[in-house]
TrEMBL record:
This is 3'(2'),5'-bisphosphate nucleotidase. Keywords: Hydrolase, Magnesium, Metal-binding, Multifunctional enzyme. Pfam families: Inositol_P. It comes from Rhamnella rubrinervis. Pathway: Signal transduction; phosphatidylinositol signaling pathway. PANTHER family: 3'(2'),5'-BISPHOSPHATE NUCLEOTIDASE, PHOSPHATASE. The lineage of its organism: Eukaryota, Viridiplantae, Streptophyta, Embryophyta, Tracheophyta.
Length: 393
């Protein structure tokens, strides 16, 4: 099975969803830039040329932005029943990916296991939000121009969000989508990813990670905010064919490989930015035991898998706090991106991840990722550290 058609469709869907997300952030920024200009002129500062005024206003607006961007985004950030955040862009991205996959693969039956659903958007008080989502989807489709569709209605968008809705991944083909992975990072202006994978009979056969804020250059030394770096990476992997990375603007892909570092003293490791998502103290004990010298590189989302697949770091450690159950959309795309680049992804007991059991991914204690050479010593350090932590409680 080649999965070439599916890969092309998935790349297109994830790339368009990435544009939607960036447009959402840009619009948020522009709204406040405009407010900045208006406030500046209102304050009676209009004395020089139009250009000068514009430039000074822009700087003024930029300062204003820095202060209020979080406030602005709050109006488009909602809280789900589990208290986790979801934004207008999460829903828009899911609707768009679902729309593009169905358009590009009309002859295939469509089954989608995705993070979001339309439940909250069907409530009376969500109508304004639903309209903003619909406008964002329509604007993205219009600026892409590939599909001759009249504008989608709010009902079309609700239908697209729930289209193919499925929880069963044990047999047949199922798309697995996280429309924005790392929503907290997205809202903060940090890393996030659109993560899309295809399961065939319970196995991940292709995966895409669109990481709009990830520098094209290595973030190995933790320079994810470097202003010299161009950003926007698309990672893609197909079973048996390796992993590639290309700029999100569409330039040529290059094949990537995990780092070959075997000496932990030269290795750096990734973990979640959010301490609530992973036990940082446990990772630190493991790293020390292993002999890792570098401090952790903490970034949001499956951008960690992407960065590891191209050798920016050597290890990714994820140990959710007790009671949390991992979901397949948080790891399906990332895991194939790393394994096709030569890495290994397992739970803390060394078992491969099993994506065939529906939306949950039940793992022993946590998820660990590294290259083949380092995995045995990492597993040993993990086992000892987990036992030590358990006996100290
Ligand atoms: N208490 C918790 N423990 C572990 N993971 C959690 C968590 N709460 C939320 N998450 C998951 O962590 C993901 C982000 O991963 P990371 O910490 O690597 O950035 C979230 O994805 P979403 O942002 O798609 O909801 C969410 O699924
Ligand atoms: Mg979420
Ligand atoms: Mg996620
Ligand atoms: Mg998400």
């Amino acid at each position: 099975m080649s999965y070439d058609k599916e890969l092309a469709a998935a790349k297109k869907a994830a790339t368009l969803a990435a544009s939607l997300c960036q447009a959402f952030l840009f619009l948020s920024f522009s709204t406040f830039s405009l407010m900045g200009i208006c406030s500046f002129m209102h304050l009676g500062c209009y004395k020089g040329s139009i250009l000068e005024t514009y430039m000074i206003s822009y700087i003024y607006a930029w300062f204003l932005d820095m202060k209020v961007q979080k406030e602005l985004l709050k109006s488009d950030v909602h809280s789900k029943s589990d208290k986790s955040p979801v934004t207008v862009a999460d829903y828009g991205s899911q609707a768009l990916v679902s729309f593009v996959l169905e358009r590009e693969l009309p002859t295939e039956s469509f089954s989608l296991v995705a993070e979001e659903d339309s439940g909250d958007l069907r409530k009376d008080d969500a109508q304004e939000t639903l309209q903003r989502i619909t406008a964002l989807v329509n604007d993205t489709l219009a600026s892409d121009g590939s599909y001759t569709v009249s504008s989608l209605t709010t009902e079309d968008v609700l239908r697209a969000i729930d289209s193919g809705k499925s929880e069963d991944g044990s047999s047949g083909r199922h798309w697995v989508l996280d429309p924005i992975d790392g929503t907290k990072g997205f809202v903060r202006g940090d890393q996030y990813a659109i993560a899309l994978a295809l399961l065939d009979d319970g196995k991940v056969v292709l995966g895409i990670l669109a990481c709009p804020n990830l520098p094209l250059a290595s973030i190995g030394s933790g320079n994810q905010h470097s202003s010299h770096n161009e950003v926007g990476c698309l990672f893609f992997a197909k079973v048996g064919s390796g992993t590639y990375m290309q700029p999100l603007d569409g330039s040529s892909p290059v094949k990537v490989h995990v780092s070959a570092i075997q000496n932990p003293e030269e290795a750096s490791f990734f973990e979640s930015f959010e301490a609530a998502h992973s036990q940082h103290d446990l990772s630190s004990t493991i790293a020390k035991k292993l002999g890792v010298k570098a401090p952790p590189v903490r970034i949001d989302s499956q951008a960690k898998y992407g960065a590891l697949s191209r050798g920016d770091g050597v290890i990714y450690l994820r140990f959710p706090h007790k009671g949390y159950r991992e979901k397949i959309w948080d790891h399906a795309a990332g895991s194939i991106v790393v394994t096709e680049a030569g890495g290994v992804v397992s739970d803390a007991g060394g078992k491969p991840l099993d994506f065939s059991k529906g939306k949950y991914l039940d793992v022993d204690t946590g998820i660990i990722v590294t290259n083949k050479k380092l995995m045995p010593s990492l597993l040993k350090a993990v086992k000892e550290s987990v036992e030590e932590k358990a006996s100290s409680l």
